[in-house]
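Dear colleague,

Following up on Tuesday's group meeting, I ran the structure prediction for the six-component complex that the binding team flagged. I've pasted the input sequences exactly as they went in, so you can double-check that nothing got truncated or mislabelled along the way. The C-alpha cells for the whole assembly follow below. Feel free to forward this to whoever is handling the docking comparison.

Inputs:
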Amino acid sequence: MKLLLLNPNTSSSVTERMATAARAAANPGTDIVPVTATVGPPYIATRAEAVLGAMAVMEALGSVKDDYDAVIVGAFGDPGLGGAREILSVPVVGLSEAAMLTSCMLGRRFAIVTFSATLGPWYRECVAYHGLEARLAAVRFAGGTFADIGSVQDEMRETIVDLCRRTIDEDEADVVILAGAPLAGLAATIAAEVPVPIVDGVAAAVHQAQTLVALRPRKPIAGSFQRPAPKPLIGVSVGVRHLYGDDTAP
Amino acid sequence: MKLLLLNPNTSSSVTERMATAARAAANPGTDIVPVTATVGPPYIATRAEAVLGAMAVMEALGSVKDDYDAVIVGAFGDPGLGGAREILSVPVVGLSEAAMLTSCMLGRRFAIVTFSATLGPWYRECVAYHGLEARLAAVRFAGGTFADIGSVQDEMRETIVDLCRRTIDEDEADVVILAGAPLAGLAATIAAEVPVPIVDGVAAAVHQAQTLVALRPRKPIAGSFQRPAPKPLIGVSVGVRHLYGDDTAP
Amino acid sequence: MKLLLLNPNTSSSVTERMATAARAAANPGTDIVPVTATVGPPYIATRAEAVLGAMAVMEALGSVKDDYDAVIVGAFGDPGLGGAREILSVPVVGLSEAAMLTSCMLGRRFAIVTFSATLGPWYRECVAYHGLEARLAAVRFAGGTFADIGSVQDEMRETIVDLCRRTIDEDEADVVILAGAPLAGLAATIAAEVPVPIVDGVAAAVHQAQTLVALRPRKPIAGSFQRPAPKPLIGVSVGVRHLYGDDTAP
Amino acid sequence: MKLLLLNPNTSSSVTERMATAARAAANPGTDIVPVTATVGPPYIATRAEAVLGAMAVMEALGSVKDDYDAVIVGAFGDPGLGGAREILSVPVVGLSEAAMLTSCMLGRRFAIVTFSATLGPWYRECVAYHGLEARLAAVRFAGGTFADIGSVQDEMRETIVDLCRRTIDEDEADVVILAGAPLAGLAATIAAEVPVPIVDGVAAAVHQAQTLVALRPRKPIAGSFQRPAPKPLIGVSVGVRHLYGDDTAP
Amino acid sequence: MKLLLLNPNTSSSVTERMATAARAAANPGTDIVPVTATVGPPYIATRAEAVLGAMAVMEALGSVKDDYDAVIVGAFGDPGLGGAREILSVPVVGLSEAAMLTSCMLGRRFAIVTFSATLGPWYRECVAYHGLEARLAAVRFAGGTFADIGSVQDEMRETIVDLCRRTIDEDEADVVILAGAPLAGLAATIAAEVPVPIVDGVAAAVHQAQTLVALRPRKPIAGSFQRPAPKPLIGVSVGVRHLYGDDTAP
Amino acid sequence: MKLLLLNPNTSSSVTERMATAARAAANPGTDIVPVTATVGPPYIATRAEAVLGAMAVMEALGSVKDDYDAVIVGAFGDPGLGGAREILSVPVVGLSEAAMLTSCMLGRRFAIVTFSATLGPWYRECVAYHGLEARLAAVRFAGGTFADIGSVQDEMRETIVDLCRRTIDEDEADVVILAGAPLAGLAATIAAEVPVPIVDGVAAAVHQAQTLVALRPRKPIAGSFQRPAPKPLIGVSVGVRHLYGDDTAP
C-alpha cells in the first residue's frame, strides 16, 4: 500500500527525518511517499502558523498526482485533519491523533513531551479537540532554545530524557508521547533510558494508517464526513479547486 | 472607532447583509469597514471549507491597508480566529464566540438555530472549541434546501421561527442564537414571535468588539497569544508575509 | 443609558472605588448610579456571606426608585445574579461573569488573581457555576492580611503584580482577571508591569451591560428566566414584595 | 439525637408533611424538630425565590434557641446549604444532596421527577452544583398545574408514577428521586408501581444527617468550610448577627 | 440488622481491624459479620489484583450461609461492587464509594490519602468510575515502604498526618479520606492533629449501609441493576452458581 | 506474529466466529490463536458476569502455554483489560477499546449498536472508563430477544441495519461500531446498506494488536502499569499464581 506522508511544514529536513522514521516503522509492502508543504513556515508552532499549515495540506493534496491509499498529516497539532477527512475518499490520520490514541492502549494517562514552550498551549488545544483530556497527564516542554529545527532532537536529547522521567514521577504518566515532527525517530534511541513506553508520532501514524487501509472503511455518504457538495472556489489553485470538486474549475 | 468586518465567505451579498446589520447595531462613532474574502467558497459550511476560510482571513488581513481598531471574523464557526488573535495587535472577535458569550449573560442555556444540516456538527465542534458545552441546550437545523444563500433568511423565516419555539419547549433553551452569517439581521424581525431573547451574531460581535476596544487590553508579550516569532514563509502572498512579520518579505 | 451599579457589600468605600472605575470605563452618555447594600457585611468573602449578599441585591432592587436600563451586580462571585435575572425585565450582569466572558475573547485560559485566600474556593465555585472550568488556568491568591478593605489594592500592589506574573509563567494563563470589587481600577495602574491583558471586573461589567442594553433582548416569557409567578411573601420588606410581584403587598 | 428539620418554604403544611415523613424514617431516639421559614414564599420554585429561601435558612438558624445535632435544609435545590455548612459547627445536609448521594449507592444513573416545569432548570443547576451530572439520567416534570401545594402529591399521583416509568424506559434511569418537599412521603406509597428504587429526599436526608452526627466529624478550622471570621453585619436580625459571630451585635 | 462486612483481601488481620472499626461505628442493634476473602492476595493494590478481589467478593457471597441485610465491600477501590449490586437483592455499598459520598456532605473537595504509591492511580480510576472527579482535590500517597500491612497505620502515622496537612494547604481539600482497609480506625486517633474532618471508609460504609437498609429500597426489576437472567456457569464454585441463579447448578 | 484471541465468554461458537473474523482481518504472517474461557457464562452481558469474565481472562492467561506477541480481550466491555495490561509484558488490547479508538480516526462521533438492551448501560460505563464520552453519539440496542447467541447476527440483521441508519440520522453519528463479540464479522456484510463506516471490534482489535506489536513498546518498570510486586495468592489456580508471579506457587 502507498501512504502519503504529508509534511505541513515547509522544511524538507523535517520531511526527511519523518520519512526515515516512517519507513523504519512501516510493514513490508508499505510504500511511504513523502511530500513537503509548499505553503507556510519551516516549522508550525502556533495557531497562526497552523492556519497556513492547514492550507498547505489542502494545496499538497490538490497537487499530488500519485494515487495513494491513505494520508498522514505529518505535524503534531494535526492541521487541516478534519477538512482532509471530509474531502478525501481515502483514510487520513494525524500525527498527534495517532500518537494519543495509540498511547491509550499502553496505559491510562499519557504525557506529551516537546521541545518548545510555544507548542504547549497549541498541543493542549489539540488534546481538547480530540476529546482526550481525561487521558492527558501533562504537557511538558523544554524551556531553552535550539540552533536548528533539523537537529533539535540531537541538541535536546538530555533535556527530553529528563522531561520524560519527570512527567512519570510527578504527573503519573503511564506513557510518553514525543511530540513534534522534528522529534521523529528519537523515541527508539532513548527508550532504554525512560522507564515507560514512549510513542513516536510518525511510527504510530504509519501503523494507524495501515490499520485504516486494511479495514477498508467506506467513504461516508451521510453524516458530517461525507464529501462537501461542490461549490465554486476563488483565489485558490486549480489543484485545490479539483480537490474540492469545484466543477467550474478548468 | 473603526471595526474591520471581515467576511471569510466570498459571497458579497452576505457581506452586505452583515454590514447592514452591523451598522444598525453599532454605537454612534463606530465605523464598519466590510471586507469580503477573496479566497474560498461563497459560503463556508464544512470543516474543509473552513480551512479555506481561515486562510481567507489571513489573506484579507494581509491585504487591508486601512488602520482599524478591532476585527470581527464574520462567519459562524470562527475560522482562523485563534491565529488572527495571535498575529494581530488589535482585538479580534468571532461571530459565534460573541454570540455564545453574550447569550451566557441572558440565560443559562443557549440553543443554536441554523438553516442547513451540514452546519450542525461543525457548529457543535465550535461550541466545544470554546469550552461552552455546559451552556449549550441544542443545535437545531432546518432540514430542507434553499434557493439562494443571499435570501435564505427570507425563504426560511417560518421554519426558523418554528425551530426557535421547539428548542425552547423541548431543549430547555433560555436564549436562541441565530447562527450563520446569512441570517444576520433576522433576529430583530422575528423577535416578537419567539418568547425568549434571540441573539444575532453580527450585532453581538459588533458590541463585543466595541467592548474590547474600549477596555484597551495590552497585546500580550508572554503566553500563548503573544505574536509568533518571525519565520520565512513560502507560497503565500506578500501581504501575508508582512502580516506574519516575515522579515525576508519584499 | 442608566446603569445601576449595585454593590452587594455594605462598604461604601468599595462602592466609591467601583463607581470611579465604572465611570472611567463607561461610554459617554452612560450614567452610573451606585447603590450600596444595606444588608450584610462590609465585604463578602465566603458562601455564608454570599447568602446575605444575594439578599442585599434583592433588597436594593426593591428599594431603588430610579429607572435604570441594566443592573451590575458589583461583587465577584455574582451573589443573587440568577435570581435578579429572573425577576427583572432589564438585563443584569455580574462582575465575575463579565470578567470571565470578556477574558474568553482575549485568550484561551484566564487566571483569577485575588487578595485573600478565603476567596479562592468560592471563586472556583463561581467559575464552575458559569460552566467555564475549561477556560480557567488557576485561581491565585495572596497569603497575607491587609489593614483596610478600602485600600487593599494599594497595600498589596506588589504582591498582586507578582501573582500575575507567576500565573502566566506557571499556569499558562493568557489573561489575568483581578478579582474582587476592592481591586476595581487596579488593572489600569499595573498593566505595564504584567505581560498579558488584565481584565478589570468593573470595566468589563460596564461594557457588557452597555452591550446588553444596546442589543435590546426581550424579557423571556417562556423558559427558566421568565418572571416567576407572583406568590405572597412574608418576612421581607415591602420593596422586595413589590419586586417579586407579590400582589398582596401594600 | 436532635435534628433540626428546617423548611425554607413558608408553607407550614409542607413542613408538616416533611415532619411526618422524617419521623417515619428516623431511627428510634432521633428527635425531629421542624421549623418553618418566616421569610419568603410558600414554596420555592425559582432562582429568585431561592435567594429568599437561603436567607430564610439563616434567619431560622439565627432564631432557633434549641440545641440540635444536625440540620436538614428541607427544600430541594438546597438553598443556603454551603453557607450554613460554613457557619455552623454541626453537620448540615440538603434534601437534594442527600437524595442524590443516596441514589448513587442504589444504581448508576438517577432521574429526578418533580411536579412543576419551573423546577426543572433550577434542579438541573443543583445537580451541576454538586458535580453529579455524570450520574443524572434526566429531570422529568409534570406539565400541568395543581390546586394546592399541600396536596399536590395526591393530585398528581398518577402523573408521577407515569413519569417514573417513562424515565426508566426512555432515559435508562436506575433509581428515581421524587423531588420537592411537597412530595415528601409519596415514595413509599407508589413504590410497588415503579420497578426501580425510589428515593424520598426527606427520608434520605434524615438518614444522612444521622450518619454525619454518628461519624462526629470535627468542625474544620482550616480550608473553605471553617467558620468565617466575624464581621459587623447590618440590616439583618440580631439572631443572624449572632449566628455569624458578629461581635458588635447586642 | 446484620451487615456482612466482606473483606476482598485475604488478610485476616485487616479483616479484624475493619471489624473493630465497624463495630465501634455501628448503631446499637447492628450486627457486623466479618468475612475474609478466600481468593486472591493479602492486600489488593493494583488493577490486576482487583480482578481477583472482585472474584473473591462473588465467591464469598456464594459461600455465606447467613442471612444479612446489606453488604459492605470492604476494600478501597470497590472491587466487584457493581456486579454485587446487580446480583443481590439487599443493598451493597463500597468502602470508597461510602467515603466519597459522605465526604461530599462535609465540604466541597475531598482528598484521598493513602499509604502506598501503587494505590494512587487505581484510586483515581475509582473516583472517575463514580463520576466524582469534580469533587476530588487530590490523591496523596506516602512514598516509602512498610513492614506489615496489619500495622501499616501505626508505622506511617506521622507521614499520614503530614500528608493530610499538606493536602489541605496545597490542594484546597475541605475533607480528607483515609483510604485503604488497613487504615481502618486511624481517622479517630489523628483527628485532633488534622484541621478538617477526616472520613474513615469503614465507619462511613457502616452508616451508609444502615441508611440503605433503613430506606428499604426495592430490588429493581427493570433497568440495569435488575438481577441478570440465569445462565449456565462453568468453572466456578457451586456457591457462585447459586448466587448467579444458575438453575443448572446442583 | 502470534496473537492470542482470548474469548472471556465460555461459548465456543462465539470464539469460532471471532477467530474467523480475526483471520479474515489479520495481516499475512499473523497467527490467530483462539482460546475460549473456562470460567463464567456463555455470554457476558452484565456487570456481574463481567466479574467472572475478568477472572476468566486471568485463568486463561495463566493456563496458556504458547508464547504469543499480544493479547486481544475478545469481549465488548473489555473485562479484565487493565489488570491484564499490568500483569503481562506483551501488549493487550480490548475489543471495545480498539473499536472506539479506531472509530475516532474515521469521524467525530461514533455510535455503538448492539443486540441486547441489557448491554447498553454496561457499554456506556465502558465508554466512560476509557474517557471517550465526548466522542460518543449514542448507544442503540435492539429491543427483542433472540434464539441463539451463536446466530444472533443472522437473526437480527435487519434490525441492526435499521439501528445503524437511525443513529446516523437521529444521533449525528459519523461512524457505527457493531458491539458484542457475537456480531463479529457482520460489519462486512452490511456495509453497503449503511451510509457511514462500520467498525468491527474484532478486526479493529487485530489491527491494533499488530500495531502495538510492531511498535515494540517497552514493558513499563515505573508508573501504574508496571508489573505488580509478587504476593502470595490463595484460592486460585497454579496457573494464575504463576501469572501473577507468586513465588510461593509450586
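The first strand of chain F starts at residue 2 and ends at 7.

Cheers,
M.
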